[in-house]
Amino acid sequence: MANNRMSRVNSEVQKSLMKIISRFDDEDISSALISIMKVDTFADFSMSKVYVSVLGSAEQKKKVVEKLNLNKKSIRYDLAHSLKLRNVPELMFIIDDVEERAERVLKLFDKIETELKETDNGEDDNI
C-alpha cells in the first residue's frame, strides 16, 4: 500500500514539475528541451531526486541542471501550491544519462560482434 502511494506521489511530482519547468522564466531552461524521466521520493518525503533529460550537448545539459538546482527553492514553492501534500520534499535535480550509457553499451556490443566475425573469418582461411 505504501509503495502504491509513493508511486502516485512520484507521478504527481513529475507531472507538476513538467508544468512548472515549462513556464520557467530563464533563458537556458525555457529554450532547452527538457524531460523529467523519473522522480524518486524518499519514504519520509524529505527529498525527491528528479532525473532530468536535456536534449543538447553535455555542456548544455550541465548548465540546465545547474540552473534548476539554483532555482529549486522557487520550483519547490510552486510545487507546494500544485500538490496536496503536508510536506513537500526538497528537490535535487540530476542529469539522466541512461540513454547515453545504453547507447555506449550497444556500440561496444556491435564492436565485439564485428571483431568476432573478423576473427572467425581469419580462422576459416587457415583450415
Could you explain the architecture of this structure?
This protein is α+β, with helices and mostly antiparallel strands. 61% of the residues lie in helices and 19% in strands. The longest helix has 29 residues, at 98-126. A hairpin with a 5-residue loop joins strand 1 and strand 2 (47-55). It has helices spanning 2-22, 27-30, 58-70, 72-82, 98-126; strands at 33-41, 47-55, 90-95. It is elongated. It has five helices and three strands; from the N terminus they run ααββααβα. It has a three-stranded mixed sheet with strand order 1-2-3, covered by helices on one side. Helix 1 packs across helix 4 (72-82). The chain folds into two domains: 2-96, K homology (KH) domain (GMP Synthetase, Chain A, domain 3), CATH 3.30.300; 97-127.
In this structure, how is the largest beta sheet organized? Answer: 3 strands, mixed
Rg (C-alpha, Å) = 21 Å
CA distance, first residue to last residue: 64 Å
Any idea of the CATH class of the largest domain?
Alpha Beta
Q: What's the quaternary structure here?
A: single chain
Given as residue ranges, the uncertain stretches (5+ residues, pLDDT < 50) are none
Any idea how many domains? Answer: 2
- Give the class from helix and strand content and strand pairing: alpha+beta
| Count of alpha/pi helices | 5
**Order of SSEs:** HHEEHHEH
In brief:
This protein has 127 residues and is an alpha+beta fold. 61% of the residues lie in helices and 19% in strands. The protein folds into 2 domains: 2-96, 2-Layer Sandwich (GMP Synthetase, Chain A, domain 3), CATH 3.30.300.20; 97-127.
